[in-house]
Design a protein that fits this description.
about 110 residues; about 0% strand
């Protein structure tokens, strides 16, 4: 399996995690955070899978997945999560951004 496919699948798994994160981390009672996490997670999941086999800076699927990672990084600050949850979500956001960046920067 190519490195780009592995990175896309890892990013898709992070998206899947963010779909379930409101219940896993206990913020499902906050509707804004719930829907935001689920929408960005779904975008990450769907566009990471659509980006399988694609590389380059003109891959719009990677750009959307990249922007979902940016939103993951903003999420804990917009909704004022605690320190531990904020750091965890920030790390996943940075990983998402890096995975998509490396795939866009990769040559076929």
């Amino acid at each position: 399996m190519k490195k780009t496919a592995v990175r896309n699948l890892l990013a898709a798994l992070i998206g899947l995690w963010f779909i379930g994160a409101p219940w896993i981390l206990g913020y499902s009672g906050h509707s804004g955070a719930l829907w935001s996490s689920m929408a960005a997670g779904f975008a990450e999941l769907a566009f990471s899978l659509l980006a399988l086999g694609k590389t380059g800076w003109d891959s719009w699927q990677h750009w959307i997945a990249f922007l979902a990672g940016v939103w993951f990084m903003m999420l804990p600050f917009v909704f004022s999560f605690g320190l531990g949850m904020t750091l965890f979500i920030l790390v996943l956001g940075v990983v998402t951004i890096l995975l998509n960046f490396y795939n866009m920067n990769e040559e076929l």
